Amino acid sequence: MQTALTGAKGYKNSPLTDQQKESNKEKSKTRARIEHVFGFMEMSMNGMYLYVIGIKRVNAVIGLMNLTWNMFRKLQLA
C-alpha cells in the first residue's frame, strides 16, 4: 500500500515508467527536506526524547526545538 510520500518500486521484469520516476523524484525531494529537520533535532539536540511531564511542557519544548531549527536554518540561508 502506498501513502502520500511512498514511491513506486520497480521490479526485474516490470521497470518504472517515466511518469513513475518523475513522481518518485518529486516525493523524494519532500521526504528528504522533512527528514533533514528531524535529523538535525536528533543529532544536535540530544535526540527526540522529551524528559518533561505534562502536555503543556511537551508542547513548549517542541515549540522551542522548532524555533531553534528555524533560527539555525535562517543563519544557513543568510
Task: Please write out the topology.
Elements: H1 18-44, H2 55-77
Give the key terms.
mainly alpha; elongated; 2 helices; 78 residues
Q: Say what oligomer this is.
A: single chain
Number of helices: 2
Helix content range of the residues, please? 55-70%
Instruction: Kindly provide the radius of gyration, computed on alpha-carbon positions and rounded to a whole number of angstroms.
Output: 18 Å
Low-confidence stretches: none
Number of strands: 0
Largest beta-sheet details:
none
- The outline comes out as elongated
First-to-last CA distance: 41 Å
What structural class do you assign from the helix and strand content? mainly alpha
- Number of self-contained structural domains: 1
Averaged pLDDT, please? Answer: 82
Give, in order, the helices and strands. Answer: HH
Strand content: under 5%
What does this structure look like?
This protein is mainly alpha-helical and 78 residues long. It has one domain (18-77). Helix content is 64%, strand content 0%. The protein is built from two helices and no strands. It has helices at residues 18-44, 55-77. The mean pLDDT is 82.
Quick recap:
This protein is mainly alpha-helical and 78 residues long. 64% of the residues lie in helices and 0% in strands. The radius of gyration is 18 Å and the shape is elongated.
